[in-house]
Amino acid sequence: MAQRRLKVFDEYRYGKRGVLHPGDRFRVRGGPVYITDAGQKYPMGERGMMVFKRYCERGAEKWIEATAVQGSSFVILWVGKSSRSPKVPNLVRRPYRVRKVLVPAG
Q1: Among 44, 24, 37, 28, which residue's Cα sits nearest to residue 93?
Q2: Which of 3, 8, 63, 92 is most buried (CB neighbours < 10 A)?
Q3: pTM listed for this prediction
Q4: Residue 95 main-chain phi, psi, to 5 deg
Q5: How is the chain classified by DSSP, letter by letter?
Q6: What is the domain partition of the chain in residue ranges?
Q7: Residue 93 and residue 30: Cα distance in Å, rounded?
Q8: Contact at 8 Å (CB) between 41 and 35?
Q9: Separation CA 13–CA 19 (nearest Å)
Q10: Nearest one of 64, 80, 77 to 22, comparing CA atoms
């Protein structure tokens, strides 16, 4: 199998008019879900405010790299198509939904 090349971008387009640039604040929701054998769903995703760093693609895999506003954590946010995790059984990688936060001028 051929090695896929990593593509790194300084912006992420999340709608017709929405674009994130490095340093922009945005809010996320959604994300991965763990489904037990009994059918119970447990959300595993990050929530809240993030600061955009960069957007990456490798073949069909697409993700955003960001930092949390409230903490010092670095997060990887999946924004590709929904699929099962190749490493963790019963984990469904659902894409995060992104919404930019407007910071008032002042």
Answers
A1: 44
A2: 63
A3: 0.84
A4: -70, 150
A5: -PPPPPEEES-EE-SSS-EE-TT-EEEEEE--EEE-TT--EEE----EEEEEEEEEEETTEEEEEEEESSSS-EEEEE-S--EE-SSSTTEEEPPEEEEEPPPPP-
A6: 7-100
A7: 10
A8: yes
A9: 4
A10: 64
